[in-house]
Write a structure and sequence with these properties.
There is one protein chain. The chain has helices spanning about 5-25, 30-45, 50-95, 105-115, 115-130, 135-145, 155-165, 170-185, 200-210, 220-260, 270-280, 285-290, 295-310, 320-335, 355-375. It has about 375 residues and is mainly alpha-helical. α1 (about 5-25) runs parallel beside α11 and α7 (about 155-165) runs antiparallel to α15 (about 355-375). It is globular and about 80 Å long. The N and C termini lie far apart (about 55 Å).
């Protein structure tokens, strides 16, 4: 990449950082980011007579700190994802338990007002409306997903094994992505790693898991239902905050990478950007500092996508290989995949063989078996 292309990356990352900081300004995560990274950065920027010192701090101090924070955020997001999947399963169970406490008259009225033929017609209309095959497939999955499936554990594992066989001779990362999804929806992923940090998320899950679902009274059901339903809102809030923090981390880390590639006389931030950052750090955003920055990032997005689409791995000498690593890192940091791996950036993977499938199945099936064993029947 040439100097102008790196400057596009610099400007995009700087603007996105400022507006992302504004988005998490009400969160406790904002205070941590400012104290650990933004304030030291601004202090060094104030010593404009020594730009080399600023670049050294970004490369040797900020870069490793940001990478560590980024990985921690990723680990926490995996915990939130595991909680989300449990939440979906538990809401599903509670929706069906609700029928125990519905008056017979209410159920009779529902059935009378929804005759089978009319209900079937509405279902067909829902599935076929629009004529788009992809939409049809998604809607069909959502409908079939509401039907409880009677299947033995061994039969389930046979079907998973059949699905894995479709990945023979492909790249290992593809089958790993499927295994990750199965662990999550199969409630086999750990959901207690950060539970002490988020008691407001862990308690509703623990209350549900300790409840005797077969003997649940209506009062107990109402308490569980309220806890589980309110959990959804709390979970979304904390996930939004960590998404915002990760975007800030990615942007500042991208600026660390760019600073290694721009000449020493290039500023990391323009004057208006620096003013906005200073107001960010103070916690008192000055709207007039944001006005000159508005509307610029949209055009930069198109230019950034065009630049990254043209990057190819060359036959490299050592310097070219280092630059390509930086460019590939920038591409991931400035993408919408906030938690994409960058450490390591490239992972050597194996070709999927029958032996590799058996190796991965042994681990996965043990985890799923333990999850089923520890879950009450309605959850299974």
């Amino acid at each position: 990449m040439n100097r102008d292309e790196y400057k596009v990356c610099r400007e995009y990352a700087a603007l996105d950082l400022i507006f992302s900081l504004y988005g998490i300004s009400e969160s406790d995560l904002f205070d941590r980011f400012v104290a650990e990274l933004l304030n030291p950065l601004l202090e060094l920027m104030a010593k404009s007579d020594d730009p080399a010192r600023l670049r050294k701090w970004m490369d040797q101090t900020a870069d490793p700190k940001l990478r560590k924070m980024r990985q921690e955020n990723k680990d926490r997001m995996e915990y939130f994802t595991a909680v989300t999947d449990r939440l979906v399963a538990y809401e599903y169970v509670l929706n069906r338990i609700e029928l125990r406490f519905s008056p017979e008259e209410k159920l009779d009225d529902f059935l009378k007002s929804n005759p089978e033929d009319a209900f079937l017609n509405r279902m067909i209309m829902y599935l076929t409306r629009g004529g788009d095959k992809r939409v049809f497939g998604t809607r069909l999955q959502s409908v079939v997903g509401e039907v409880p499936i009677q299947i033995t554990k061994n039969k389930l594992f046979e079907r998973i094994d059949h699905a894995f066989s479709l990945y023979l001779d492909s790249d290992e990362t593809a089958i790993d992505e499927l295994i990750y999804m199965l662990r999550m929806v199969g409630l086999a992923a750990p959901s207690d790693r950060f539970s002490e940090d988020y008691p407001e998320l862990a308690k509703p899950l623990a209350d549900f898991e300790e409840a005797d679902l077969a003997e649940l009274s209506e009062q107990e059901y109402n308490v569980l239902r309220d806890e589980i339903y309110s959990l959804s809102e709390k979970l979304q809030q904390v996930m939004d905050e960590y998404n915002g923090l990760q975007r800030c981390v990615n942007d500042l880390l991208a600026l660390c990478v760019v600073s290694r590639r721009l000449p020493g006389d290039e500023n990391i931030f323009e004057e208006n950007e620096e003013k906005a950052l200073k107001s960010c750090a103070s916690g008192h955003f000055v709207e007039e500092h944001l006005v000159p920055l508005e509307g610029r990032i949209e055009g930069l997005t198109v230019r950034l996508e065009r630049i990254m689409s043209q990057v190819e791995a060359p036959d490299m000498n050592l310097w070219e290989e280092e630059e390509y690593q930086d460019v590939a890192t920038l591409a991931r940091l400035l993408s919408n995949s906030l938690f994409a791996d960058i450490d390591p950036l490239f992972v050597e993977t194996r070709q999927v063989t029958r032996e590799l499938i058996r190796e991965k199945e042994e681990v996965l099936f043990a985890e799923l078996s333990e999850s089923m064993k520890s879950s009450p029947r309605p959850v299974r």
